[in-house]
Design goal:
The chain is 43% helix and 23% strand. The protein contains 8 helices and 10 strands. With 305 residues, it is an alpha+beta fold. The structure holds adenosine-5'-diphosphate (ADP).
Length: 305
């Protein structure tokens, strides 16, 4: 309620928010407000719209719980398939023909993508339900990066792409959830590889930034500093300017990515954005079609936690 009272004194802004009414039944009310002016621009007052959103929020929660349940249930059979496939691949006495081996290889790859998808969906449902808790400790950035490289290196090598790492030794330790930041690197590097032709180049660069003027051009205005700035750059297909604002939305995939039949779910960047934001950082990009993309993210340097 305080937000509503505070803000209604400001006559220029529109705003929306929600609050709860507790009583015998709990209700959630969403409101929206807009200043109203005459044709000549004189302020008449403020229009408030209040809407009972209890039911839609309950439905939304049910949907999230259902999706989470399905994703968890898929995990068990997937792990069993993966196990069986690995046994087939590792068995030296296997009687599989050359064709058979290739089929097993395809199953292995698809199981990997399915597993990644299930992991993304679980992460996303947790984010939506507000159930993400960061397990933070001081870690060097390279600890998270190396964890990601363990899983991503083989994808990059398979495409004969060059990976360049420019991570200075003297970066401060960061107050991070290492697994979550590893996931950020995994998603950005998997994308950089997927959306770049065979033989292309991927670059990961990090630097400490203390002053806003040391950020790259066109960085967001509200980056928390000091921070470590990370760039994941590729020489790939790039992203059209009109689509750049949308790629962080869940399930959004560019027309180009779909036309080229590059596999993906459209969830990876949603997760990247959530994890970086939870750490107090920002994520943005610079890209041009056919000229490659650079994704930037920051992690604030927090001392004395
Ligand atoms: P996906 O699983 O489809 O890769 P993401 O959420 O990771 O989902 O990315 C959303 C979309 O943004 C992708 O489908 C693709 O169209 C575009 N995209 C992401 N990263 C890159 C990149 N490095 N180069 C070109 N396009 C990209």
């Amino acid at each position: 309620m305080n937000v509503l009272l505070n803000f209604s004194g400001d006559y220029a802004q529109s705003a929306s928010y929600e609050f709860e009414i507790s009583g015998t039944t709990r209700r959630v009310v969403r409101w929206y407000s807009e200043p109203v002016h005459t044709y000549s621009g004189a302020l008449l007052g403020r229009l408030f719209v209040f809407r009972d959103a209890t039911h839609e929020l309950a439905l939304d929660r049910t949907k999230t719980e259902f999706v989470s349940l399905v994703a968890h249930e898929l995990g068990t059979p997937l792990a069993a398939i993966k196990n069986a496939v690995e046994m087939l691949q590792d068995d030296p006495s296997s009687l599989l023909s050359e064709d058979g081996r290739q089929y097993v290889q395809i199953i292995a790859q698809r199981v990997e993508s399915l597993e990644a998808l299930v992991k993304d969906i679980i992460a996303l449902t947790r984010i939506e339900a507000g159930r993400i808790e960061l397990r933070r400790a001081y870690h060097p950035l390279s600890a998270a990066l190396n964890e990601a490289l363990n899983s991503v290196r083989s994808i990059i090598q398979a495409r004969k792409q060059q990976l360049i790492l420019e991570i200075p030794d003297n970066l401060p330790a960061l107050w991070i959830d290492r697994n979550r930041i590893a996931q950020v690197f995994t998603n950005l590097l998997t994308n950089a590889s997927k959306y770049t032709h065979d033989g292309g180049t991927l670059l990961v660069r990090a630097a400490r930034v203390d002053r806003a003027e040391d950020l790259p051009e066109n960085s967001p205005a509200d980056v928390r500093l000091p921070a470590v700035l990370v760039m994941v750059q590729d020489t790939g297909i790039g992203i059209a300017p009109e689509e750049q604002a949308r790629i962080f939305e869940r399930f959004y995939r560019t027309e180009d990515a779909r036309k080229r039949r590059i596999q993906g779910s459209g969830l990876g960047l949603t997760i990247v954005e959530s994890f970086v934001t939870l750490h107090g950082g920002k994520v943005w990009l610079r890209s041009a079609p056919l000229q490659g993309s650079s994704f930037f993210f920051t992690l604030p340097i927090v001392e004395g936690q």
